[in-house]
């Protein structure tokens, strides 16, 4: 098992210390504040006067009445498609993703969504059954979606999207802000595995 050594990568644009993994496939960095200052009761401002202004709750200078306290590092993961190419995974990682053919059996409007979306019910056959999903595919009219075969990931944990509990992720190709649904060839049946 290879150790994941962290290397210093300097500071980011917010003045945070950034370390990156020495492994080329890692997609996460850890941001650690150099220090966090908090106002100490009775502290004085930079000019030496008592600090009574609530707007200046943080001392400006580390040496004048400011206390330092440790802050846990924040992890920031970058999606592999947005920063230097795809992240490499193993075949074992890939086979964990359960992708199945499903048939959209119901399409409802989703006015509560922040971005335009449909609420879908997708039938994946006897083994998996009918699952719900929220999909930002409003470039497709309702009539074109009902009865359509799609490909979806069925083993992600459910995700709450507003009032909808999305149980599967319907897959598509992205072009700008438009989703083009992945569609199995004729002859595929709901529940068929994608390999």
What's this model, at a glance?
With 195 residues, this protein is mainly beta. It has helices at residues 91-95, 125-128, 142-145; strands spanning 6-11, 16-21, 28-33, 36-39, 66-69, 74-77, 99-109, 118-123, 130-135, 149-153, 159-161, 164-166, 169-170, 172-175, 178-181. Strands 9-8-7-10-13 form a five-stranded antiparallel β-sheet, with no helix packed on it. Strands 1-2-3-6 form a four-stranded antiparallel β-sheet, with no helix packed on it.
Structural class: mainly beta
Number of helices: 3
Overall residue-averaged pLDDT value = 73
Instruction: Report the strand count.
Output: 15
Oligomer: single chain
How much helix, percentage-wise, in residues? under 10%
Largest sheet: 5 strands, antiparallel
What form results from the Cα inertia axes? globular
Strand order of the largest sheet: 9-8-7-10-13
Outline the low-pLDDT stretches: 1-9, 16-39, 51-66, 75-80
Distance between the termini: 28 Å
């Amino acid at each position: 098992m290879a150790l994941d050594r962290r290397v210093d990568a300097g500071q980011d644009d917010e003045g945070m210390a950034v370390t990156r993994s020495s492994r080329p496939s890692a997609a996460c960095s850890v941001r650690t504040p150099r220090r966090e200052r908090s106002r100490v009761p009775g502290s004085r401002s930079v000019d030496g006067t008592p600090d009574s202004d609530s707007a200046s709750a943080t001392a400006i200078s580390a040496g004048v009445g400011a206390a330092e306290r440790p802050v846990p590092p924040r992890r920031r993961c970058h999606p592999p498609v947005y920063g230097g190419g795809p992240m490499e995974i193993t075949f074992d990682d890939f086979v964990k993703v359960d992708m199945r053919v499903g048939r959209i059996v119901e399409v409802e409007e989703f006015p509560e969504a922040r971005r335009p979306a449909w609420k879908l019910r997708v039938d994946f056959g006897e083994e998996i059954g009918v699952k719900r999903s929220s999909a930002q595919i409003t470039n497709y009219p309702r009539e074109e979606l009902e009865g359509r075969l799609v490909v979806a990931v069925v083993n992600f944990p459910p995700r709450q999207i507003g009032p909808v509990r999305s149980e599967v992720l319907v897959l598509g190709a992205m072009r700008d802000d438009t989703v083009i649904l992945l569609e199995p060839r004729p002859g595929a049946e709901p529940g068929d595995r994608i390999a």
